[in-house]
Write a sequence for this structure.
């Protein structure tokens, strides 16, 4: 059944399964070690928060021009550019000998993020029928998670072989990433058929200017402001992301193998339920499934904070927790909620405007810039539990009430 479903989808979907799957797998190797690597290179909690803050700020500044470029020159070119930036990031990490050398890498990483997964989603939504979009999105994450399922354990073995959680122990992870990102970029460049350039840009290039195009977007799209608030609330939830691995290792005493087991089980939980939940999202609605699954992340976060032993930490990983990441996105069962939400997000806007929508929503990265900086200060002052719990309050007080007002399926093209 799944093979038949994949065969019926556009060829570009199958190319993305291979290339982005390779990129996701290689990214997952180091996802639990990036913050630990920075601290091993000498960064303290405030400097760690500052690294994320700088990256978010630069990403926010670049977001609007990037969104304009996507609509002006096409998704494929910008996706390829994002993969090349990721290759540069891995190269810098692999040869860093001090935490300050990671500053350009963090900046480039945050520039590449909105040009990989969001553009992949734009291609999937743009080439898939409305009644199958959530399933296609969920299936893509599931297939990407299969090779990534054992990436945390693979990373744990590599780190242990090269000296444990230390600079030299973690450095080989980034060398592997260089090779994987290069292969992914070649596959996209050679095999991915580009989406048509939007008529507005193609027929009226002289009128398709940056400021005017965004002015038209804000004026014409009624629900854009609501979605910007939702995206800002999501980014406020990133406050805890740099510090979750530190909490698990430094406070709860996890070793590389427990960290690997946590990542594997978190991925596996999403892997098993992703396609059924996304099928329900196509059947009964994206918003309903999001509201059913999202509270699981709140429960998982509370378990992570108050866990008396490692078994409860594993349970938190299976449920999902705010700031806990797995291959392809947030981890655990609760992390599946992101797929129907992002599907509903892209469906709210016409195809020819989705690049600029991505660009203007990326301006909300300045929110995560402030949030991670705040998280660093709170963490250094000893308020570690507050850093992990604040995203729950942001979610329930801002995101959920605003999302309830946005209609589903505003655009089915």
């Amino acid at each position: 059944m799944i093979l038949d479903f994949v065969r019926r989808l556009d060829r570009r979907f199958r190319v993305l399964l291979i290339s982005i799957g390779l990129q996701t797998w290689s990214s997952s190797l180091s996802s639990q070690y990036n913050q630990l690597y920075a601290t091993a290179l000498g960064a303290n909690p405030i400097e760690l928060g500052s690294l994320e803050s700088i990256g978010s700020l630069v990403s926010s500044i670049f977001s609007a021009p990037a969104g304009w470029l996507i609509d002006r020159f096409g998704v494929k070119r910008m996706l390829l550019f994002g993969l090349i930036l990721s290759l540069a990031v891995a190269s810098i990490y692999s040869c860093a000998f001090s935490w300050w050398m990671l500053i350009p890498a963090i900046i480039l990483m945050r520039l590449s993020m909105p040009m990989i997964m969001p553009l992949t989603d734009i291609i999937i939504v743009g080439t898939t029928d409305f009644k199958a979009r959530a399933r296609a999105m969920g299936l893509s994450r599931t297939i990407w998670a299969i090779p990534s399922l054992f990436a945390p354990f693979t990373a744990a073995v590599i780190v242990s072989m090269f000296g444990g959680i230390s600079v030299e122990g973690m450095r080989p992870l980034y060398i592997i990433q260089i090779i994987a990102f290069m292969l992914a970029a070649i596959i996209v460049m050679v095999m991915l058929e580009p989406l048509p350039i939007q008529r507005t840009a193609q027929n009226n290039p002289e009128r398709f200017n940056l400021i005017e195009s965004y002015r038209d977007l804000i004026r014409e799209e009624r629900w854009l402001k609501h979605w910007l608030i939702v995206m800002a609330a999501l980014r406020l939830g990133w406050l805890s992301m740099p510090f979750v691995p530190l909490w698990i290792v430094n406070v709860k005493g996890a070793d590389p193998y427990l960290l690997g087991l946590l990542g594997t089980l978190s991925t596996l939980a999403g892997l098993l339920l992703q396609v059924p939940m996304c099928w329900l999202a196509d059947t009964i609605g994206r918003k309903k499934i999001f509201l059913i699954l999202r509270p699981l992340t709140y429960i998982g976060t509370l378990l992570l904070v108050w866990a008396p032993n490692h078994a409860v930490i594993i349970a938190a990983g299976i449920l999902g927790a705010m700031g806990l990441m797995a291959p392809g996105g947030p981890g655990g069962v609760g992390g599946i909620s992101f797929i129907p939400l992002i599907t509903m997000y892209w469906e709210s806007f016409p195809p020819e405007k989705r690049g600029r929508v991505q660009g203007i929503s990326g301006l909300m990265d300045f929110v995560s810039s402030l949030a991670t900086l705040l998280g660093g200060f709170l963490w250094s002052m000893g308020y570690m539990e507050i850093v992990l719990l604040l995203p729950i309050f942001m979610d329930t007080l801002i995101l959920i009430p605003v999302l309830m007002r946005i209609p589903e399926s505003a655009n089915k093209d």
In short: The mean pLDDT is 84. The beta strands are 325-326, 329-330.
